[in-house]
Write a structure and sequence with these properties.
Layout (H helix, E strand, L loop, with lengths): L8 E2 L6 E2 L3 H6 L3 E3 L5 E3 L8 H9 L16
Antiparallel strand pairs: 1-2, 3-4
Length: 74
């Protein structure tokens, strides 16, 4: 049963939607637990290498505002 407030888990590397509960994802090895207790989810073994997962975990997110995409008048 899915409800209005069910969490959606996504891969930290590629953004793919991961099916299952938090406990199921941890049990099948699709989660990395950080030293501070934070749980980061990723695809099962084989799709991403350990190095790719670590790089995505420690990467600095890049965000930009919509004003950068607006066209300038000619």
């Amino acid at each position: 049963m899915t409800g209005k407030f069910d969490p959606v888990f996504t891969c930290v590397c590629c953004g793919a939607k991961l099916l299952g509960t938090r406990q199921e994802l941890i049990a099948r090895g699709a989660a990395t637990i950080q030293g501070n207790g934070q749980i980061l989810f990723h695809c099962n073994a084989g799709r991403h290498t350990h190095a790719e997962i670590q790089q995505a975990i420690h990467a600095t997110p890049t965000f930009s505002t919509g004003s950068k995409y607006r066209k300038t008048p000619i």
